[in-house]
Design goal:
The complex is a heterodimer of chains A (155) and B (414).
Chain A (H helix, E strand, L loop, with lengths): L5 E10 L1 E9 L10 E2 L4 E2 L15 E4 L8 H11 L5 E4 L4 H14 L5 E3 L2 H9 L2 E6 L3 E7 L10
Parallel strand pairs in A: 2-5, 5-6, 6-7
Antiparallel strand pairs in A: 1-7, 1-9, 2-8, 3-4, 8-9
Chain B lengths: L7 H8 L4 H17 L4 E3 L2 E4 L7 H12 L8 E3 L16 H16 L23 E3 L2 H11 L10 H8 L1 E3 L13 E5 L9 H16 L4 E4 L6 H14 L6 E2 L9 H4 L7 E5 L1 H10 L9 E11 L1 H11 L7 E6 L1 H10 L1 H7 L2 E5 L15 E4 L2 H10 L3 E4 L2 H10 L6
Helix pairs in contact in B: 1-2, 2-3, 2-6, 3-4, 5-8, 7-8, 7-10, 8-14
The chains are: A alpha/beta (155), B alpha/beta (414).
Chain lengths: 155, 414
């Protein structure tokens, strides 16, 4: 049994780019406005289960978005400052997230790919410690490095 | 783009044939449209931009990029409030750097051809859209007013996208742009009203707060609301869009798309019925205050959304020679300020001790001098947001209660 075997999942590109990193999976939707401190990359919504965690450099998994449209500016500002996630994997299309990442890509040439994963892959993606995202204009590929931790990644 | 049908002119825009600003704006719009599942765009007549509040460098960089690329808005475009009062810059009590960046952001929008209205009540200016107009508006209270009270058609646009629509002259055709999506799904019945309430506005704020909480982003149709004026409907929509994500409401027999129940529901049955009685309404209004009656006040804040000339007409008979024990602020727009100057009321208001705040709003920026005590307002929206935004205790009451409390220096109810 190879512990480092890779599995690929197909996804849809919402904002193109390529990135890899440790994952941060949000247990509940987060409003970036009032929920993310763009200066530090920390989750500051004190009612959120991941309050206090950092999304800097992470591949962020969030099932869906939430909250004020001002979230786009907060996300774009975090990406600009390098405190934001390196990629975002969604299960449901979210205009706030997409606009934030697309603005950062256009204005600063910093890509934070946003991709839409399929229901059937979600559990496996959630369990992954690291993800690699390659998002072309239309289609994206996610590679899951099979975790050394045996009780996850077996969806 | 997946599932998007583009017209020739739109394909050209995307290819950069109409310049970099339009390419940039329309590219973002196509991404947004794909995200919301729109299959095409619709031409718009007007836009209102909620982009003048400074949220970080990206706010400036975005508008600067458009300006540098020669961007101009393609349709008449009004501007929402900024972080500073450009007419009375001395009122700003925050960091100087923030003030200068905010002022720059406001002026950059003017360079793009936007009209410097700096008001959250563009619907009470000469830029009021016509019934049935397709528009792209930002600012939650303006959106709900345009859809509900005027019958213009906009979704809840915000950050960057409102300005992209203005530059491209187009909006993604989905949601409230589509007539069939504008029907009510919930019926809100006002069964009884507190007889002691002497201003119709109280009931409007209470009902607005309730529908925000209970309807989320669904469209309610209201029956049994006491007769009010346009400013009462404005207050209702503003608080509903604060406590919830309401983008549109109907008042049966009052608003343009709800002459009858049949019209409001477009022939469908209500999916849910909510009944509110006098006790429910009293309780909602009580909860809008975080302090008890009799509490010492440091200020009164009116005009969220911006006070209309008609609201000043209601205030003037209560004004007397002022005699206020606390600071008294009223937010309004340049269009109303001009009217106040013309009729001589500006001098009377200022002589009575009232500070007129233009271009901005006392709950989004550092204007209120003394935040050490409670602040009283007749705005459900101000009462909803100010405790979190600027960290004050708040008392909510009618216009007459606010004026009486200003004289007493503490919360009194008439």
């Amino acid at each position: 049994m190879s512990l480092e075997a890779e599995i690929s999942a197909a996804a849809l590109t919402l904002v193109p780019g390529a990135a890899s990193g440790e994952t941060l999976c949000l247990d509940e939707p987060l409003s970036f406005w009032g929920g993310l401190d763009s200066a530090s990359g920390l989750i500051i919504d004190r009612w959120h289960p991941q309050h206090g965690q950092s999304m800097s450099g992470k591949v962020l998994l969030m099932a869906s978005g939430r909250g004020s449209s001002s979230g786009s500016a907060v996300l774009a500002e975090a990406i600009r400052l390098g405190t934001g996630p390196v990629a975002i994997v969604l299960l449901k299309r979210d205009p706030i997230v997409i606009v934030g990442a697309a603005i950062a890509a256009e204005l600063y040439s910093i890509s934070c790919p946003v991709i839409l994963a399929g229901d059937s892959d979600w559990k496996q993606l959630r369990g992954a410690a690291r993800l690699e995202v390659e998002a072309d204009q239309r289609l994206a590929k996610i590679r899951v490095a099979k975790s050394k931790n045996r009780d996850i990644g077996n969806a | 783009m997946d599932g998007l049908e583009l017209e020739a002119e739109e394909v050209a825009m995307l290819a950069g044939d109409a310049g970099e600003a339009k390419r940039f704006a329309f590219m973002l719009l196509t991404r947004f449209a794909t995200a919301v599942g729109a299959s095409r765009f619709v031409g718009i007549e007007a836009a209102h931009i909620d982009g003048c509040l400074y949220l970080g460098e990206v706010s400036l960089d975005f508008v600067e990029h458009l300006a540098r690329a020669g961007g101009r808005v393609a349709v008449p475009t009004t501007l929402n409030v900024g972080s500073v009062d450009l007419i009375h810059p001395e009122l700003f009590r925050g960091e100087i750097e923030l003030a200068s960046k905010s002022a720059r952001l406001m002026r950059l929008h003017e360079e793009l051809g936007c009209v410097p209205t700096f008001t959250c009540a563009p619907y009470q200016t000469i830029f009021r859209p016509r019934e049935g107009a397709q528009i792209a508006w930002g600012e939650s209270n303006a959106i709900v007013f345009a859809n509900s009270v005027i019958g213009a058609r906009t979704n809840r646009y915000g950050d960057f996208i409102d300005l992209c629509c203005a530059i491209a002259g187009r909006a993604p055709y989905f949601g409230l742009h589509v007539p069939g999506n504008r029907r009510a799904s919930m019926l809100v019945e006002i069964a009884s009203l507190p007889p002691e309430w002497n201003e119709a506005g109280l009931a409007h704020v209470a009902v607005g707060h309730a529908i925000g909480r209970m309807c989320g982003d669904a469209i309610p149709a209201i029956v049994g609301l006491p007769q009010g004026n346009e400013d009462d409907l404005k207050a209702l929509g503003a608080v509903a869009a604060s406590s919830g994500s309401v983008g549109m409401f109907h008042v049966v027999g009052v608003t343009p798309e709800a002459a009858t129940m049949e019209d409001a529901f477009q022939g469908h049955e209500p999916e849910r019925v909510i009944r509110l009685d006098a006790d429910d309404l009293r309780q909602i209004v009580r909860k809008l205050s975080t302090v008890a009656d009799g509490t010492k006040l440091t200020a009164i804040c009116l005009g969220t959304p911006h006070f209309s000339f008609q609201e000043f007409e209601a205030l003037m008979p209560l004004l007397g020679d002022g005699g206020f024990a606390v600071d008294f602020y009223i937010n309004t727009g340049r269009h109303v300020l001009n009217q106040l100057e013309t009729c001589g009321w500006k001098e009377r208001l200022e002589a009575a001790g009232i500070t007129l705040v233009i271009d901005t709003c006392t709950y989004v920026t550092a204007v209120v001098r003394d935040l050490s005590g409670a602040v009283m307002t007749n705005s459900g929206k101000w009462a909803y947001y100010a405790p979190g935004n600027i960290g004050v205790q708040v008392a909510f009451g009618s216009l007459a209660d606010c004026v009486a409390s200003a004289r007493a220096g503490r919360v009194v109810r008439l």
